[in-house]
Specification:
CATH architecture of the largest domain: 2-Layer Sandwich
CATH topology of the largest domain: TATA-Binding Protein
Oligomer: single chain
Number of domains: 3
Order of helices and strands: HEHEEEHEHHHHHEEHHHHHHHHH
Helix content: 40-55%
Largest sheet: 5 strands, antiparallel
Shape: globular
CATH class of the largest domain: Alpha Beta
Structural class: alpha+beta
Mean pLDDT: 88
Number of strands: 7
DNA sequence: CTCCAGGCATGAG
DNA sequence: CTCATGCATGGA
């Protein structure tokens, strides 16, 4: 049984969807930073191939993204001056489409037409925020596929980011469609109907989902059977939020992540352990507030862009926490002093 | 070995 | 309504 499935997988993998057209677009991006955005915890499936270079999927196309200095590209012989050359995004899409729709898809996915520097300036009017947030608006909120975000953040609950990535990788390799690229195979995210047909044991054992197997399966089935999931994006945020909370495995925090990362509701403010710590330190003088209280505080201070503030706070505190967390050796070394 | 991870569902009070 | 508990898994 399993052997047969494995062979089936191999065949499917090697068939792959042949990438016929390759469209290349170069877009000036201002302060946007691919690396900061991809490593900010809002997406899990972009694979880093080099510094500032990633491969992933947008829609049903495999995509290679590279952050470049625009001048270096238009005039390769000109001296590379960081000050005088603007940042740009060189994007190669593998799939059938014309350059114009490719450019539109890229601008939309990376939210490049929004003025993030202006948003950051507005957020930085808050003194506490300004103290810890960066000056440059490197992180954008991506416009990811809603279903992918739903499943991804169900898996994210009580889990580590490296493990979330590996689970999603296996899930897509098993249930998504393979696309051949010069960097190896990449997979589309599985459609709801496909995940709904999966076996629970397969999700648990092969993909490593653990106890979340039934959450993923039930939610995939609910969305597959839901005739109007495509139009959820048109609903007002409070109604959409209530609807998301009905999905199995979706609580308040995950619902807010889905609103922010899947439906681009920039006022949604997911409160996880890191944000709770950050907000507590910044605004509650180290007393432990309720999650409700934290969200209310964020909405009051950051308003329509609370979600953007959240992403910058999350990145700042996580970067700080990783180096600041004392290791066992550091602790004993400290005691030895 | 224990602790923890971008929490959630469940049941008790 | 609030609160406590168990939960698969794997990296630190």
């Amino acid at each position: 049984m399993n052997e047969i499935m494995d062979i089936g997988r191999c065949l499917r993998s090697h068939e792959g969807v042949e990438a016929r057209n390759r469209v290349e677009v170069l877009i000036p991006v201002g302060e946007f930073d691919v690396e900061a955005t991809f490593e900010s915890g809002q997406c899990f499936r972009w694979r880093r191939v080099r510094a500032g270079e990633y491969i992933g999927v947008i829609g049903r196309s495999a995509v290679h993204v590279q952050q470049v200095l625009q001048r270096a590209l238009t005039d390769p012989l000109a001296p590379l001056s960081k000050a005088r050359s603007g940042k740009a995004l060189l994007v190669r899409l593998m799939g059938e489409m014309d350059p114009q729709e490719a450019e539109h898809a890229v601008i939309r996915y990376f939210d490049l037409s929004r003025d993030y520097p202006a948003i950051l300036r507005r957020l930085r009017r808050d003194a506490a925020f300004a103290r810890v947030a960066p000056r440059r608006a490197g992180i954008h909120i991506l416009r990811q596929d809603p279903f992918e975000v739903v499943i991804s953040f169900i898996i994210s609950a009580n889990n580590h980011i490296p493990r979330i990535r590996r689970i999603l990788e296996r899930l897509c390799a098993r249930y998504g469609e393979a696309i051949r690229t010069p960097f190896g195979l990449v997979y589309t995210f599985p459609r709801p109907e496909v995940l709904a047909e999966a076996r629970l044991a397969d999700l648990r054992e092969r993909c490593g989902l653990g106890y979340r197997d039934r959450y993923v399966w039930r939610t995939a089935r609910a969305i597959a059977e839901c005739s109007d999931f495509a139009s959820w994006s048109e609903w007002p945020t409070p109604i959409l939020r209530r609807r998301l909370l009905e999905l199995d495995g979706v609580g308040e925090k995950v619902a807010d992540c889905i609103l922010l990362f899947g439906f681009h509701r920039l006022d949604a403010f997911p409160v996880d352990t890191w944000i709770a710590r950050a907000m507590r330190e910044l605004y509650f003088s180290d007393r432990m507030p309720r999650v409700r209280e934290i969200r209310a505080c964020a909405v009051e201070r950051f308003g329509a862009y609370a979600g953007v503030a959240q992403q910058y706070l999350y990145a700042a505190f996580r970067a700080r926490g990783r180096v600041a967390r004392p290791s066992r050796e550091a602790a004993t070394a400290e005691e030895a002093l």
